Amino acid sequence: MSNTFRTLDHADVKGKRVLMRVDLNVPYENGVVSDATRIERAAPSITELADKGAKVILLSHFGRPKGPDQKNSLKPVAAEVAHTIKRPIKFVSDCIGDEAERAVAAMKSGDIICLENTRFHAGEEKNDPAFIKALAKLGDLFVNDAFSVAHRAHASTEGLSHLLPAFAGRTLQAELEAFEKVLDKPARPLVAIVGGAKISTKLDLLGNLLERVDVLIIGGAMANTFVMAQGKQVGRSLVERDLLDTAQKIMDQAAANKREIVLPVDAVVAEKFEANAPSRVVDIDSVGPADMILDIGPKSVSQVISVLARAKTLVWNGPFGAFEMEPFDNGTVEVAEAAAELTEAGKLVTVAGGGDTVAALNVAGVVDRFTYVSTAGGAFLEWLEGKALPGVEVLRVK
């Protein structure tokens, strides 16, 4: 990995002004950061740079503001970063211009400042050369530690690396190394779990994974469309009727390539989608007209766990059922628990990512027991789809 991308091991940062792109776009409600995972992930790179004598200048977006908007100020988030790393961080109320330049000029080695939301300027998302130049004026080096925005060619994620020497921070490096282990050089058998609601949003993903994996396990509501394509009834379950032909083509492609597809053999069904609604387990052939499939059943759980038991590598994106509501979290939790146990026993490399997936693994309490869990949503999906990510490509050793 360190041969393909420039990392902090290649950077001389002492006394240098380091513009560091982090992802501080964290959930913030009622004046409190409700999930500091992204801040905790960024902390080691921030402190490493400060300890090496860099002047660390943090850049991030927050929310989707259309111009300056105090509701989307990074100021309270910067305070949370300071709290997490237990060091003072000076907040600066713009990310370019006189105030930012004065704040940077006053910095000593080891100091950390956080600049205001880069999206307060339209030039950020437009990757505008004038805005990139104004940002670059503040730094000697650029460190990207935000994989979650690496699929966007924005000024602070991609543009800066054309004007300043650019390096991957430790979080980004860890993501790239984990991904290399899974898709580029996996120990086989390689198994993928793809769940969630819609096939339509994951067509590229399914296509790319079928080229690479040995077994594809399909869960969540998207499995209903495959089940229906096989001529079975799914009652009132969520299903994409316009994609039945597509589902059939995917199954045909898998058969032609000698790839195994695993679909549910039984399901937990209910007539209402609400917490603790009366539910029962039925075979997948016996779903009634009023039933909604809300989770995989115990036979399906056993089937998935037996596939994992013979796997060496697992990549996971998407839950098996309506995990945010009991008892429909059961399938996801049991499979996650089994994957975590195999990981701890050294038998399985597990990499998971995507917003719903991380939330589901948090419900199962196994995030720290997987080999790597990516906090990146869109970027993780695009990477799984085999797409080049602009913010990563610019860090490759030419």
List strands and helices in order, with pairings.
Elements: E1 17-21, E2 28-29, E3 32-33, H1 37-51, E4 55-59, H2 75-85, E5 90-92, H3 98-105, E6 112-115, H4 122-126, H5 129-136, E7 141-144, E8 166-168, H6 170-184, E9 190-194, H7 203-212, E10 215-218, H8 222-229, H9 244-256, E11 260-262, E12 266-270, E13 279-283, E14 292-296, H10 298-309, E15 313-317, H11 330-344, E16 349-353, H12 355-364, E17 372-374, H13 378-384, H14 390-393
Parallel strand pairs: 1-4, 1-7, 4-6, 5-6, 7-8, 9-10, 9-15, 10-11, 15-16, 16-17
Antiparallel strand pairs: 2-3, 12-13, 12-14
Structure, described:
This protein has 398 residues and is α/β, with parallel strands linked by helices. It has two domains: 8-171, 3-Layer(aba) Sandwich (Rossmann fold); 186-384, 3-Layer(aba) Sandwich (Rossmann fold), CATH 3.40.50.1260. Helix content is 35%, strand content 17%. It has 14 helices and 17 strands. It has helices at 37-51, 75-85, 98-105, 122-126, 129-136, 170-184, 203-212, 222-229, 244-256, 298-309, 330-344, 355-364, 378-384, 390-393, and strands at 17-21, 28-29, 32-33, 55-59, 90-92, 112-115, 141-144, 166-168, 190-194, 215-218, 260-262, 266-270, 279-283, 292-296, 313-317, 349-353, 372-374. Strands 5-6-4-1-7-8 form a six-stranded parallel beta sheet, with helices on both faces. It has a six-stranded parallel beta sheet with strand order 11-10-9-15-16-17, with helices on both faces. Strand 16 (349-353), helix 12 and strand 17 (372-374) form a beta-alpha-beta unit. It is elongated, with a radius of gyration of 23 Å. The mean pLDDT is 93.
